[in-house]
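Reviewer 2 asked us to include a model.

Predict the structure of this chain.
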Amino acid sequence: MCGRYTLFTPTADLEARFDADFGDREPSYNCAPGQSLPVIPDRDPGEATRMEWGLTPSWAEESFDLINARAETVREKRSFADAFERRRCLVPADGFYEWVGGDGESGKTPYRVAFDDDRPFAMAGIYERWEPPTPETTQTGLGAFGGGTEDGETGDDPDAVETFSIVTTEPNDLVADLHHRMAVILDPDAGEEETWLEGDADEAAALLDPYPSDDLTAHPVSTRVNSPSVDAPDLIEPVTGD
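Predicted model (C-alpha cells):
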C-alpha cells in the first residue's frame, strides 16, 4: 500500500517539472491520509488542486476514506470504477514510506523509498467530489444514486469535498523487501503521465505495472514519522536505530 509520502521539492521546481501552478504551499515530509494535498486533475492539468487524501465515492452516504485502490480491481469495484473511467489525477511526490517487521506499528521500522536524486515523480491517482447527504436527499433516496451531472461534475454545495486515492500495484524488486504493494509511479519519459490524464480506460489500465527499481533507493528513517502530526526535514534522514 501507500500510506505516507513526501513532497518537499521547492514550488518553482514542481511547477517546472509538471508545467502546472501549485500556488501557495508548504513542504511536507509526512503527507498523511486525511490531509489536503496537491494533485493534478485531468480536468485542468495546468493547475494543481488541493484534495483530501482518502477517496469517498460521490454516491456514498458517509465518508469512506479509501486511501488506495488496487490496480487489479480499480476498473471493477463500485467505489473506484467511475473515477477510473472519468476522473484521473497525478499525485506529485518525491518519496514514500513503507513499514517493515514487528507485530504492530510501534515495532515496525519505517523506510523511505525515493529516486537517488530525490527528484519529484507522479503517482497514479483517481478522485471524486463528494457532497454529504442532506436530510432531503436522504429521505428521497438520492444519496444512493449520487447527485452528479451527466459529465461527472456535481453542484456547488459548499460542504462538498474533493477526495483522491492512490492506485497501487505489485511491488518491484526493491519494494518487495519492504511491502507486498507499491504505488503506481508513472514514467514521464514514456509519456505515461499524459496518457494517464488524457487516455481512455484501456490505455490507462496498461500503465498499472510496477516501476523498475533501478533508480530507486530505500533507507530506514526515524519512527517519529509514525505520527502524522510530526512533519520535519529530519524525518527523511537515514538512521541506524531510534
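The CA atoms of residues 75 and 81 lie 5 Å apart. Residues 137-155 have pLDDT under 50 and may be disordered. We have added this to the supplementary material.
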